[in-house]
Amino acid sequence: MNFGEWQQLSPEAAAREVRRRAESNLSNVQRRAVLATLLDEAALAASFAKAPAGSPLRGVPYVLKDLFDVVGEPTFAGSSFLPEVRPTPGQDSKIVRDLRVAGAVYSGKAQMFEFAWGLTGENAHYGDCERPGFPGRTSGGSSSGSAAAVAADVVPFAVGTDTAGSIRLPAAFCGVYGFRNVPGDPWMADGVPLAPSFDTAGWFTRSAGDMRTVLSALVGLGTGERTPRGVYLEMPGLEPEVAAACRAAAAGLAPAADAATREELVGKFAPAAELYGVLAGLETWKFHKKWADKYRARYGPLVQARLDRARAISQAQVAAVEPSYAAIKATWAKYFQTYDFLVMASSPFAALAKADCTPANRLRMLGLTAPASLAGLPAIAIPVPLPSGMSTGIQVIVSHPKSPVLAWALAQRIP
Known about the structure:
The protein is α/β, with parallel strands linked by helices. Helices cover 43% and strands 13% of the residues. It contains 17 helices and ten strands. The protein has a ten-stranded mixed β-sheet with strand order 1-3-2-4-6-5-9-10-8-7, with helices on both faces.
């Protein structure tokens, strides 16, 4: 169901439908892995009834990644202990308040990779979140439950975050649309941080039309007087099926980069995954160090290992990557002097099996998503179907959240 179809339902019918879809579209195991909380039918009906008449998102239900606050509910951020060490919030997070004004109906919280520190949708506490329709394949992360709830058609819209791909990756794996905003905006300021210099808020929708509606309501759609200019950059390391599909999809938006542009971008972006690991890892350690040792046994094994690596990051390591970090940002600035957008694949492969959620594949994913993250750039993620029935995606990276490219790209016919 799209936004318009949800908006045709009465408050009581919409509440019943959210509950019915959560129960029928997700198995018992996956319901726990996808949804941290779900409002009961009476509370949902009351919320639908309160949605302001005439508001752009009136009557559109959504789920919220569980690192944003809702008064009366704990915020675990995919962990087993966060409410024990973090003050109880006195008000809803700003994104919740803004969505309420826009008419969207909060329906519950979505599960996530523990503390948002992973791209694979795994969670040692609540279960691994799978790509709907493909048991055993990951939804991607860290906004795993948000993407899966939209892909499973439980709700048409879900809030997530993207620090180094946590919207773009699950959007690709789950075959939905995604939007990544910019670091430092007010929506992210009161969420549980991963790495504040790189954290961004965003969301998922099932369709391009619905994505345009949310962008218009929450960000504003820019308009342009000319057709925007961009190129498609095919990075090394894509699986052949993904490379072919992304190349065909990108052709609806932009030509392939010329040899000189490709050489410059690929060369400057090559160390992005390593740079991100150092710079973001240090920031994440600063957030966790006050309780990391006391609560070590309460972290899942994957996050324990990442904490150990982050603890060991030295200022010498940071100094060593600073020149390459500056070069990446300068390269983007130079690129946007000529072009309005860059298209890249969002994932090098389709949704992974758990056995393939390896450190090597994590680096392959970061190689595609970290370049935009390091420069703090916004992007939309557009799903790309694969012959196997699974999906990948392309990311359209722009210089500003109100870039007219976003509305233009969502209106194009993508093969």
